[in-house]
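General statements about sequence and structure are easier to judge against a single worked case. No coordinates are needed to read the tokens, only the vocabulary itself. The sequence in question and its structure tokens are set out directly beneath this paragraph.
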Amino acid sequence: KIVALVSCVALLALVFSCGTTGGGGGDFGTWEWKGDDDSNNGGGSTITLTEEKQGKTPVYAFSGNITNKWEYGDVYMKAIPDPATLEALKTTKGITFKVIGDGDKYSVKFLTSDIKDGGYFQFVFDTIKGQAITVAVPLEFFMQPPWAKPVGSIVNTELIEGIEFQTQHSGSPGPFAVKFFDLKNYTSGVPKLTSAEEKANANAAKAAAGAAPVAVGGDLGALDLVLVDNFEYGDGYQGNITDKRLFNGYKIAKGDTFTLKITYTASRDLEDVVQVGLVDTTPAANYWKWLVDEPLQELPKSKAGEAVSATIKLTATTGATAASQAANVLSFQTKGEGKQGSKGSGKQKAVTFKFTEFVFTKD
């Protein structure tokens, strides 16, 4: 465990003021930083925490990999306050912190004891790959997610137990890397960026805009894909690959061509051939819009443990609606026999494809 103690004056108390910024006095406190994975839910996501230095300031660097072994696979980065810092949070007006991210979105949450379903008040923010930026979040900006059981219109600060950061590609496989430092609590005034912080953020965005684009795809190595029962909406089993490495933030455009080279085995005998295609699964695409013409590319029907190797070409006949992972998906599906008299289920169980080779490139 790593405990952060940041001081800019003689230590007179465990919570102290380090001067003022645009929103009033921001207080550094004493925080214990730790990372949690999804193993309690049967997941396989990983997270590692190391302490670095930004000058004399401790920096808490989290990295690892998200998997969809658990449907909602994810990791959680927590800052747990000591008693004095926790007491100060009861009168919080908001927080600021610095973050060096990987270009993905993250959320920051107040963990409160009145919420039992995980639907904590949160704020979603962008990061800029490899660049340090400052994020300022007034208390009023925190909202519960739409699926949560409402407990009020604003955070009950009397019930705060800590602060948590979370990735925003839950259930979508792929690596992540993010660093946090200079976490401040504001008990007077509304937190906002100083002119220096605004300038630094603008310079970070400018630097990122000038960076070379990341290549699409590459060698994803060994991975597992579960094709789940999809009889409620279709006539077979379906597995979608949303690994962030697949497109690296690229938005599929009409006319794009891709090459997929794979070797895999299925965990059970298949009832039919396997179809492969690119799809947009966002609300803007009505949750399912093929980006390639049908009929889809096909892989042979195989028996359990039988190795299948193939190289296929995919040509986009329409573009994705966004650059998000959900809008640029590689889908595998195979038809199966439904169980008579049982709506929404198949006669067989879900099937797992174990890929020993998975190379995806843009031509």
